[in-house]
Amino acid sequence: MIVGDLNELTVKRISDIAYILTDGGDDEIFLHKKEAEKNYNVGDKVTVFLYLDSKKRLAASTAKPLITVSSPAFLQVVDYKPGIGFFLFDGMPKDLLLSISDVRVNQDEYPDVGDWLFVCLRYYNGSFRAKMLPKEAFYDYMHPSGSLALGDWIKAYVVLAVPLGLTAFTLDGREIFIPNALFRGKKRIGEGLSCQIVKVIDERHYHATNLKSKGEQIDDDMKRVLSYLKIHHTTNLTDKSEPIKIYQAFQLSKAAYKRALGHLYKEKIIELSDTEVSLKPEE
After folding, report:
1. Where residue 171 falls among pLDDT bands split at 50, 70, 90?
2. At what angle do helices 254-266 and 243-250 cross, to 10 degrees?
3. DSSP state of 71
């Protein structure tokens, strides 16, 4: 028998409240009748998930979990407890804990309720825990069929940030790279992004953009710069500043920043000089 996985066992005997299961050895597993999907007879074969109950006793359920020790999966974050970790819905009565110590990103990149994380199931100190997996694990466990085309819109979930952009994956295991210039703002691990395919590498690897249409995106970029200036009133980041400094302050590429400044200047919202950008005083 494998704890944390699906097992085919046989009903050995029946009590008032449970079915007693066996794999033919000496061990007996308790399947409470409320955990059974139907009535069984002695000798019936039953496929069950083996887990630990609230008293750390080995028990069985005919409920089909979303994850097992042999099958990692994307699970959705349903709760967060500061100092403890993230709770993921795994299809079982008790949500699965992902310890905060296993989420090795800055706090502003922590996943939020509703985000999706690719995790495996592990046994720790008498209980099950989720553990995050590296991106290489997607290729070991997920095998999408077909391919995406240029212009397709898809949903992808952030797995890690790298210096040149974001690495995200679709729920069926396709790797989506989003360059820094093609998204805005800090993104959370597990955050879902609507992306449009801009380059096809092969059936599993794509480049995409998270930006809106040109007009909508310029409006958003202007709001981002204006929000900064309303707080700081001025900045020494001009259209001649280093791209990395612009990105660190606004999460905008240099080209996007220059476009935003140009529109704000034309609308007489800001004043520009060779060394400074400032919010124009209200008349």
Report:
1. very high
2. 70
3. B
